[in-house]
Design brief:
By secondary structure, this protein is an alpha+beta fold. It contains one helix and six strands; from the N terminus they run ββββββα. A six-stranded antiparallel beta sheet has the order 1-6-3-4-5-2, with no helix packed on it. The longest helix has 20 residues.
Length: 109
C-alpha cells in the first residue's frame, strides 16, 4: 500500500481576489501571490471553515475540489483569507503510514 501525502509549503497564504460562490471550482488569489502555493499537487487550503483540495495552479488561479474532509462548500467574500494548512487528515495519513511501517518491522515482513 502506498500513501499519497499532501504537498507542503511554508507560509503559503493569500486572499481571494474576488468573491467565491459555493459551486465554484476555481479561485483566484491576490495578483502575484499564487507562487506562494506549491506548484505540485494535491494540497489542502482553507477558506473560513471550508477545506478545499487544490488539484492545479496556474499563476494566481487555483483549481479546487470543494467541501473536503467533512466540511461544506460555502460562498466566501472577496478578500477572504486563503491558507495552506495542516489538517487532521494530514496527521492521520502520517500516523497510518508510520503505524504500517512499525507493524511491518515488528512482524518481520
Amino acid at each position: 500500500m502506498t500513501t499519497s501525502f499532501i504537498v507542503p509549503k511554508n507560509r503559503a497564504h493569500s486572499k481571494l481576489a474576488a468573491a467565491l460562490t459555493a459551486g465554484a471550482l476555481s479561485l483566484t488569489v491576490t495578483a502575484g501571490e499564487g507562487a506562494r502555493f506549491p506548484s505540485t499537487y494535491n494540497f489542502h487550503i482553507t477558506i473560513d471553515d471550508e477545506i478545499l483540495v487544490c488539484t492545479s495552479r496556474t499563476t494566481d488561479t487555483l483549481t479546487v475540489t470543494r467541501a473536503a474532509q467533512g466540511t461544506s462548500a460555502a460562498a466566501h467574500s472577496d478578500k477572504s483569507y486563503v491558507a495552506l494548512n495542516v489538517t487532521a487528515q494530514s496527521i492521520s495519513d502520517l500516523n497510518t503510514a508510520v503505524n504500517t511501517i512499525e507493524t511491518t518491522i515488528t512482524s518481520g515482513e
